[in-house]
């Protein structure tokens, strides 16, 4: 069945690689092993082909119907699951998404009560088209610390996050795309409450003819909110990374503090990095800033390291690793951060 996918004539998908989705769906099914968990004490959910086949822990999970009019998330709309975390609870969840080929769609809603705390780690493995719709609803004072690890070997991964953040709540999410698949990470965050906080970022690494992109929109709808976006892009060979990050400040969202940092690193001049920071401000008492830069590895640093006996590929790997470190170092949990760093190192070892 041919899908009605968005085209590059639509501004929101101007850099999207939609033909890669059709190619991903045509990949043959194959047996894929479920990776070992990263967090030893976390409740674990394993989705295979979009179906929940394994769960551990005492999470309150119910069936739910989830809908979205987003151009890709609508394919994931339908019967899914809802996780509800009670007020003032502390929970760790690890979600593993395994795709054995073809289509895999997963709708999920996570609701946090007042002052609830969630540590969430998500991993994508396998091949085919993996498509998710995840909705977060944070109550007053709730906190989410999330890490998303895309290491799927082939195909395409598209994620759509729709996040509502209430008064004094915070949502922090870090993503790593160290994969052989194409990706599109799409998110819409709304800071609905006074003093809400959002932090979003990560690193996308591409090689060969691969394409990865993120498209994030943060809307400040209440006063005294803060949002920070920090993304790093590394492109080798003929690959392309595209980062589009927008901040919208509503008329009543006075005292907003918004910051965007988008940086790209070209490992070869045949590669491409597209950066698009965007600010839409309708309030008059705010502090918002953005920065976007694209460059290459420092020749003087490379020369110095080689003069100290470090081989060129190793020197390039060390400098590239340092470039993405400020994105990955925002992961609070040591074990999770080390796992993400190991994924980035493995990607660099294969690429350089």
From TrEMBL:
**Sorted alphabetically, which InterPro entries does this protein's record hold?**
Fe-S_cluster_assembly_SufBD, SUF_FeS_clus_asmbl_SufBD_core, SUF_FeS_clus_asmbl_SufBD_sf
Residue ranges of domain SUF system FeS cluster assembly SufBD core in the record: 102-323
Protein origin, superkingdom: Bacteria
Q: Which SUPFAM superfamilies match?
A: Stabilizer of iron transporter SufD
Q: Which Pfam families match?
A: SUFBD_core
Tell me the PANTHER family matching this sequence.
PROTEIN ABCI7, CHLOROPLASTIC
> What name has this protein been given in UniProt?
SUF system FeS cluster assembly SufBD core domain-containing protein
The organism of origin for this protein: Sphingomonas insulae
């Amino acid at each position: 069945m041919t899908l009605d996918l968005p085209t590059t004539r639509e501004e929101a998908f101007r850099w999207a690689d939609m033909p890669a989705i059709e190619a991903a769906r045509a990949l043959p099914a194959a047996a894929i092993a479920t990776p070992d968990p990263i967090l030893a004490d976390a409740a674990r959910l394993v989705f295979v082909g979009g179906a929940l086949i394994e769960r551990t822990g005492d999470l309150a999970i119910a069936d739910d119907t989830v809908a979205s009019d987003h151009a890709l998330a609508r394919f994931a709309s339908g019967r899914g699951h809802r996780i509800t975390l009670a007020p003032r609870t502390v929970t760790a969840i690890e979600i593993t998404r395994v795709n054995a080929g073809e289509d895999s769609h997963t709708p999920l809603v996570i609701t946090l009560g007042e002052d609830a705390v969630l540590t969430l780690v998500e991993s994508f493995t396998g091949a085919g088209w993996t498509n998710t719709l995840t909705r977060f609803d944070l109550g007053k004072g709730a906190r989410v610390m999330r890490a998303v690890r895309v290491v799927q070997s082939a195909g395409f991964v598209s994620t759509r996050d729709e996040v509502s953040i209430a008064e004094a709540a915070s949502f922090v999410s870090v993503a790593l795309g160290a994969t052989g698949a194409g990706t599109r990470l799409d998110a819409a965050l709304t800071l609905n409450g006074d003093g809400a906080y959002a932090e979003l970022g990560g690193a996308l690494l591409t090689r060969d003819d691969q394409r990865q992109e993120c498209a994030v929109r943060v809307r400040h709808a209440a006063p005294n909110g803060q949002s920070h976006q920090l993304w790093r892009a590394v492109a080798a060979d003929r690959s392309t990374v595209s980062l589009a990050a927008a901040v919208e400040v509503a008329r009543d969202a006075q005292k907003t503090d918004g910051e965007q940092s988008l940086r790209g690193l070209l490992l070869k001049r045949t590669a491409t990095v597209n950066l698009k920071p965007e600010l839409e401000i309708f309030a008059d008492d705010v502090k918002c800033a953005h920065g976007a830069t694209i460059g290459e590895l420092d020749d003087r640093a490379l020369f110095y390291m080689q003069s100290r006996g470090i081989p060129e590929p190793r020197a390039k790997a060390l400098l590239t690793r340092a470039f993405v470190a400020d994105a990955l170092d925002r992961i609070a949990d040591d074990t999770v951060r080390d796992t993400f760093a190991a994924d980035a190192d493995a990607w660099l070892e294969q690429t350089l």
